[in-house]
Amino acid sequence: MRGKQKMALKGIDIFKLLPKEHANCKACGFPACMPFAMKVAAGGAEITKCPHISADVLDKLAESTAPPMKSLTVKIGDQEGKLGGETVLFRHEKTFVSKTLYAFSICAGYSDAEVEAAISASAAVDYARIGERMYAEFVNVYADEDDAKFVELAKKASALNRGVILTTSDPALAAKAVAEIKDAKPVLNGANASNYEEFSKLASDNGLLLGVGGETLDELYDTVEKLEKLGNKNLILNVGTKDIRSAFEFTVQIRRAALMNNDRTFGYPTIVDVAALAWDNEPLQAALAALFTVKYGSIVILRTMDYAKALPLYGLRQNLFTDPQKPMRQEVGIYPLNKADENAPVFITVDFALTYFVVSGELERSGMPCNLCICDAGGYSVLTAWAAGKFGASSIAKFVTEQVEPKIKNRKLVLPGKVAVLKGELQDKLPDWEVIVGPNEAVSLVNFVKSVA
After folding, report:
1. Which positions ≥6 away from 307 have C-beta within 8 Å?
2. Contact residues for 69 (Cβ-Cβ < 8 A; gap 6+)
3. What is the pLDDT of residue 5?
4. In Å, how far are 277, 301, 311 from 165, measured between CA atoms?
5. How confident is the model at residue 63 (pLDDT cuts 50, 70, 90)?
6. How far apart are CA 438 and CA 427, in angstroms?
7. DSSP string covering 287-354, please?
């Protein structure tokens, strides 16, 4: 790669720019200006936490103190998604910020029946897992020789309430499609060394994210520099469709250049077209989608999305893009299952998201109406929360008295089997309730629920 490395400011440089008349005022939440400056330089605090910093200095520091990878917003139907903003190469170092987003594809070379089949198959995958919607966030529209068909498919894709990616290297064709769906804010995926000026103008005029690629890393780097000189920094880097090896090398080297070397020319999210890398090999596409979820695709394009791909892929993504230092938590409250009303029995458990996911799934599978109550346990599993004193008789009784009794008439309370030791004390604290010890494992709940009901 060629080009001059753009280094971020060090802590001492930031310290020298802080207002001396308010030195060590602690308004930023730090005991002094120096530790604040060091934390800002490391990406652990925002420079705006200093209330006394001038607008001129703020503008001067804005780019240098921003994450080494630019954070971008992309339109996904009537929602917004985030790309980039990453600060670490490995999840265990801190956390990944913006989850990988997925696209399924439709092609101007398809027949009408093939287009409808592709949309129907991919649209069928839409489910919730631990409070998160799992579906393909984008529709990628491939160009072909038929210009009119490409524009027609762009309009069809924009009506699906998902993000739209327009994949074509023809700026004139892209302009025709953008004119029809500009409100959908599609991603333009097709800029390169020969057409970047036309694409940059089209993207800038319409406020669109621009995908830019190159045959080599040097060519991509040079094209990005030229786009930045045109004032366009709303970019996503296409790592190429030539072969799997080069796509992987591009993604890793781009991320390392941005995060390890602070080279902001490569400090942009990436788009990986695994459909183009393995068009006729669906199992290989699934494997590549998993690979580039881990190694560092911001948007991954597949030919189709079905449950065979989705279930492992979204499970991987959800585990990867959660903060390893913070437990996944389910919101505290009462969750009626199987059309339960106030007369259905009560099952209580902790707010660890995986526990909720497993227990609610088994209770739903039983088909019996019941109220699953989630108690605040610090986001820990049942035994861990009990050992830490966050899921004891007192906290459970307080939760039942304050939040459950006013809404539920049934007085059967099922306790997780792993904390059966709490039954006696809990019964004393809730004399109007019948405390029942449930099974140790969620898989046994189906038969157990029927006996309780």
Report:
1. 124, 125
2. 84, 85, 86, 87, 255, 258, 259, 267, 268, 269
3. 47
4. 17, 9, 23
5. low
6. 15
7. HHHHHHHHTT-SEEE-S---HHHHHHHHHHHHHHTS-TTS--BPPSEEEEESS--TTS-EEEEE-BHH
For residue 37, give both structure tokens.
């400056």
DSSP 52-89: T--HHHHHHHHHHHS-SS-EEEEEETTEEEEEE----S
Torsion of CA 275, 278, 283, 285, to 10 degrees: -40
Locate 71 and state its tokens: 């954070």
Across the range 239-258, mean pLDDT stands at 93
Q: Which of 446, 371, 353 is nearest to 412 (CA)?
A: 371
Q: What is the DSSP letter of 7?
A: P
Instruction: Please give the CATH architecture assigned to the domain spanning 333-452.
Output: 3-Layer(aba) Sandwich (3.40)
Superfamily of domain 71-320: Dihydropteroate synthase-like (3.20.20.20)
Stretch (H or E) spanning 190: strand 187-191
Beta bridge partners of 211: 189, 236
Do domains 11-65 and 333-452 share one topology? The answer is no
Q: Residue 234 contacts by C-beta under 8 Å, 6 or more apart in sequence? A: 72, 203, 204, 207, 208, 209, 210
Write the DSSP symbol of residue 373. E
Say whether pLDDT at 3 is over 50: no
For residue range 137-149, list pLDDT tens digits in order.
999 999 988 889 9
pTM attached to this predicted model: 0.78
pLDDT tens for each residue of 279-309: 999 999 999 999 999 999 999 999 999 999 9
pLDDT mean across residues, the chain: 91
| pLDDT score at 198 | 97
Please tell me whether residue 138 adopts helix, strand or coil conformation. strand
Residue 258 CA: distances (Å) to CA of 59, 190, 249, 397: 21, 22, 14, 52
Reference 131, options 328, 297, 275; nearest CA is 328
Which alpha helices (DSSP H) does 98-243 contain, by range? Answer: 112-123, 147-158, 171-181, 196-206, 217-229
Position 175 confidence tier, pLDDT thresholds 50, 70, 90: very high
Angstrom distance (rounded) from CA 146 to CA 139 = 19
Q: Tell me which of 1.10.1240.10, 1.10.15.40, 3.40.430.10, 1.20.120.1460 is the CATH number of domain 11-65.
A: 1.10.15.40
pLDDT at 275: 96
CA gap 136, 126 in Å, rounded: 8
